[in-house]
Amino acid sequence: MTDSVEKIPTLPPDWLQIESLDLDAQGIAHKSDGKVVFIEGALPFEYVSAKTYRQKNNWEQATVTAIHRESSQRVRPDCPHFGLHGGACGGCKMQHLHPSAQVATKQRVLEDNLWHLGKVKAGMVLRPIEGPTWGYRYRARLSVRYVQKKGHVLIGFHERKSRYVADMSVCRVLPPYVSDLLLPLRALIESLQARETCPQIELAAGDRVTALVLRHLEPLSKSDLEKLRAFAARHNADAPAQPIQWWLQPKGPETAHLLDEAGSEQLAYALPDFGITMPFKPTDFTQVNPHINRVLVSRALRLLEVQPHERVIDWFCGLGNFTLPLATQAREVLGIEGSETLVARSRQNYDANQASRTGARPLAPTGFVARNLFEMTPEMLLQDGAADKWLVDPPREGAFALAKTLANLYAREHGLPEIDADEESKEEAGATVPAPAAKPSAQGWTPPRRIVYVSCNPGTLARDAGLLVHRAGYQCTAAGMVNMFPHTAHVESMAVFDYVGPRDAG
How far are the Cα atoms of 43, 132, 381, 390 from residue 447, in angstroms, in the given order? Predict the structure, then answer.
């Protein structure tokens, strides 16, 4: 991201020059005494005035009050609920920044994290994965609140820096037909007898049908159930191409069920590059942005370069989002996930897709295993056998235990100190600590030649990358960002690691 703002030699006393943007979309400036100021609403290369609302010895947090010279990357936000004012929606933080500049900022965040936290520099920067910047959010958890004093219902995201629900009439990041439902849904909930005991509506949109999961703390009356049915019937008559179905959730996610089972279409999304269809339940984890997910899966497998004779392990496999496409290319696939429920669901998805592959190459033999992936040991890893390639797609916590285990097996093989359990916190903080004497390695096991790591947290990716590169014999061949959440500060990314052994490892 560049700008041609002329540098002013001597700034007026209350002016600040914005130098960069942090991960929370705050402009970063320095006062004349060197103190750092994080300024909400300010963009790089701007000159602004700001009001401080939090102050520490070495830094301050402030809100922009005036923009004296505006960045060429500043745009007018498309959402009427965006801003710094009271009651503004807190769902998006970067709407005032041009989408291309958002991508550049997130790419810089990824590279900075890799270097500063992991001391890793990718050999090649991958082209960012981008898609639609509006109407992309096919999953959302919408808060519902009946405001008794005002006598009406609010549905949407929380206000910025608040637990209150924003008074939203539209939401530009939701699919347009879902955004159009916000006000009708408010009227519906307001009409229910249970309006005070329905705190949440979860949105889960598939390719052909959209689920609305109503969380209710008390049983719903027959009258309320009929109102839900009537609402869906009216919408589906008016918009037959975008049908909705009601799900009810009386307790935890496992209790979610269809209001009416008969004639209800199954939620699913397609991965057309692989001839795969993924059924799912609305409370299952699926990617928020299906447009990006299709590109993400295709690029991940292209980077992995799976050959027909290879065995591949998909770590944190979930419903099989990567596992089933891998099964169209590999000799054998193993999917490993922490949840028994998800493992059962992934087996069902595998069986359904195998049965439907008439005229196409059958899916490769694929197994699914449930295991706590945050408590890995070398012995556990050896039980899974050697694999030519790995696909790793962890949650925000990352895959530290997995990376540490690879590092310890490498240490055993080459007579180096291991990382023991007492050192994990120090290792996570970037410290290198001597470990106990090396142990004998298992015969016949070899590390994967290539790992493609899909990340939703650049900090934990950088931490794990540091272990793989500096202690497990890998080099970071490539890395790039994935703009899964436009207009937010959320950074997703992927990185490629190739095994090079002791001579070339960083």
Answer: 45, 38, 10, 9
End-to-end CA distance of the chain: give it in Å, rounded: 30
pLDDT at 436: 42
Domain with CATH 2.40.50.1070 in the chain: 139-205+209-258
Q: For domain 1-74, say whether CATH 3.40.50.300 is its number.
A: no
| Count of beta carbons in the 10 Å neighbourhood of residue 202 | 19
Mean pLDDT of the 340-344 span: 92
Catalytic amino acids?
456
pTM of this structure:
0.91
Q: What is the pLDDT of residues 493-504, one digit of tens each?
A: 999 999 998 854
Q: Average pLDDT of 249-266?
A: 93
8 A C-beta contact, residue 328 and residue 353:
no
Q: Topology of 139-205+209-258 in CATH? A: OB fold (Dihydrolipoamide Acetyltransferase, E2P) (2.40.50)
Q: Which of 272, 355, 308, 294 is nearest to 136 (CA)?
A: 294
The whole-number pLDDT of residue 23 equals 79
